[in-house]
Amino acid sequence: MVTAEIFDKLRELQDILARKNQLDSEISEAPQLLVKQEELLAQYKTNYIKKNTDDEAIRQTIGALKAELFETEQKRENAEKGMDSITSQREYDALDREIQEASKKEAELRKEILKNEANHKRLDEEIKNEEALIKQQEQELDERKAVIEKEIAEKKNELAELAEGEQRIAPDLDSDTLFKFDRIIKNKQGIGIVPVQGNVCMGCHMILSAQFAIEVREGKNIMYCPYCSRILYYQESDQDSTEDMIFDDMDMGSLADLDDSSDYDEGESDNSED
Fold first, then answer.
1. Please, what is the angle between helix 89-169 and helix 35-82, to 10°?
2. How far is the CA of 230 from the CAs of 174, 200, 261, in angstroms?
3. Is the pLDDT of residue 63 over 90?
4. At 194, is the secondary structure helix, strand, or coil?
5. Structural element, H or E, at residue 224
6. 105-118 burial string, b = 16+ CB within 10 Å, else e?
7. Cα angle value 7/9/11 (rounded, 5°)
8. For all residues of the chain together, what is the average pLDDT?
9. Phi, psi of 194 (to 5 degrees)
10. Are 213 and 198 in contact, with CB atoms under 8 Å apart?
C-alpha cells in the first residue's frame, strides 16, 4: 500500500530535485555569462597589437624619410657651394639642375614626413584609448568573475544542503522509484507528481480509463500516467465531470520517458513498486 506519507516524501523530494536541476543548470551556464565580455576584451587586445605594429612601421618610415631628407639637403647644399667655383655654363646648368631636383625632392620628403607624423599622432591617441579600454574591461571582467565565483560557491553550498535532504528522504523510497522520479523531474520541468481528479491527470489533463483511475485511488502501487509519465495520486474533486478538462498535447509524453535501455528491460512495468 502506498501511504500518504510516501506521497508527501515524493512531493518533498520533487522540490529538492527540481531545485538541484535548476542550480546545476545555473552553475554550468555561469561561464557563458562572461563570453561576450571576454570576446570584447580579446578584440580590444587584437586592435591594440595591430595598432602598435602599424605605429612601429610608421615610425620606421619617418626615420627613413628623415635620413633621406638629410642626404638630399646635403646634396643641395654641396651643389649650392659648388656654384662659387663654376667655370662654364655647362657646369652651371648641371649644378642648377641638381639644386632644383634636390629642392623638389626635399619638399616631397617633408610632405611625406608630415603625413606620416600625423598618422603616428592619430595612432598614438588610439593606442592610449585602447589601453584605457583594455584596463577598464579587465577590471570589469575580474569583478564579474568574482561575483560569479561567489554565486557559484553559494549555489554549491545549497546543492550540498539539498543533497543532505535527498539522502534523508531516499531510504524511505525504493531505488527504482527514485531513479524514475529523477528522470521525470528532469523531463517535466520539475513537476513529477500530480493528482488525479475524477479520472483526469492534472499534469497533462488527459482522461484516464476508469479502471486506471480506480487503481490510482486505491493506492496499492505507485502509478505513472500513461501519457505524461508523472507519478499519480488521487485527490478528491468537486467535479467528477471531465467535459471541461483541457487537452494539453504539449505536455504529453509516455512511459518511454522512464525507459532506459541500459537499466530496464523492455517489458518492465512502470506501474508497480519493486
1. 170
2. 17, 13, 19
3. yes
4. strand
5. strand 223-224
6. bbeebeeebeebee
7. 70
8. 87
9. -140, 160
10. yes
Cell output for 70: 638629410
Size (the chain), residues: 274
Cα separation of 48 and 70, whole Å?
Answer: 33
Q: How far is Cα of residue 226 from the mean position of the Cα atoms in its chain?
A: 37
In this structure, which amino acid lies at residue 250? Answer: M
- All residues at 6 or more sequence positions from 68 whose CB lies less than 8 Å from its CB, including other chains: 109
What span, in angstroms and rounded, lies between the C-alpha atoms of 8 and 44? 56
Query: What digits encode the pLDDT tens for the residues 9-58?
Result: 999 999 999 999 999 999 999 999 899 999 999 999 999 999 999 999 99
d(CA 149, CA 28): 12
CA–CA separation, 21 vs 186, rounded Å?
7
Q: Are 173 and 6 in contact (CB under 8 A)?
A: yes
Q: Please say if the pLDDT value at position 252 is more than 70.
A: no
Please, which residues bridge with residue 239 across strands?
none
Residues 6+ apart with CB under 8 A from 22: 190
pLDDT confidence tier of residue 62, bands split at 50, 70 and 90? very high
Of 172-176, 221-225, 246-250, give the lowest mean pLDDT range: 246-250
Task: With both helix axes pointing from N to C terminus, report the angle between 89-169 and 4-29 in degrees, rounded to the nearest 10.
Answer: 170
Q: What is the pLDDT of residue 246?
A: 38
